[in-house]
What does this fold into?
Amino acid sequence: MLDVTSCAKQRRGGIGNYGAELIGALRRVAPEHELVLSLRPQRWRERGLIDDMLAGGRARMLLDRLSPLSVGRPVDVFHGLGVRLPAHGSFPRLVTLHDLNVFEFPELASDHWRATRQARIRQTLARADLALSYSEQGVEALGEHVGFPPERVRVVPLGVDTARFARPDEDTLAAVLTRHDLADRPYVVMVGEYSTRKNPHGLVEAFAAAGLAPHWRLVIGGPRDADADALRADGAARGLPEDSLRLPGWVSDADLPALLSGAGFCVCPALHEGFGLPVLEAQSCGTPVLSSDRGALPETLGEVGLLFDPADVEAFAAALARMAQDDALRAELSRRGPSRVAAGFTWEHVARATLAVYQELSGSRHHETC
It folds into this structure.
């Protein structure tokens, strides 16, 4: 049974997309298993938003509470996709811990959100038999900040839809780049929601210091409104020509693969990441990646890219300049990226690894009907 409450949203976001992709892949790799999807009451009215997760295969949906009548037989494993697990029931409990930002970067959260979120994470982990982490760095963070024992954490990295994140045909690519007015010169791209932790201002500073404009353009997809205005002002203050910094706002799912594929290279300048999915999405598209060396990013990048210290502006600028100037390096990274992702980071890999944890839990003890 999987709690899919986080998926019942118009815009699912990271956790919601994780749940939808995982469930779809579980049904592909293990169709003999029945998946029961649990939805908490506050989202029951939005249950139509997860119809795609129920179509075909052995899957059905329940409202919140578990009971012998509603489930029909003992639950083998309960998997909390968000930060919640039920307090009662004789079945093994598993939770995916997506991040510990409120512990690692408490200054970025309001007092209320920090206290509420920290309490919720502690409560959920106290109920969990095992936890899933995207990275070994996440295992260490769980021990350091919450005291959760590493022997009760299993590492299952995120996956990429390699059919979607692939270089599109030339006509599609040209159409997307033309629509975003990016077809006239090479560009460096960063994608993701705006936050101090993501370090977009650090990227603007290093790009200006690298002297890549006006031959290269910097594209930062995600920031909107006041956040975008602040980045534009930062670029102007650092002497970047107005046309050398593009802020297209939120990039649609349809355009994102082409935006990544058309870039000379992708940059992930974050001060911390629990995983860094855009790194793999860019690699899957055959786009070279330049990544910060913080958090789990070195694990996610592997050996198919370059690392830099985001706190060292001079080193950051030098890394940008090297990637921009070294055609042979970019070609080699472009060649190696898609095969690396296909070999170990598809959603089918995620599903098989998660299923192995389910089997470990369901075989670890006898459990009764809820």
Summary: The domain at 2-159+348-362 is CATH 3.40.50.2000 (Rossmann fold).
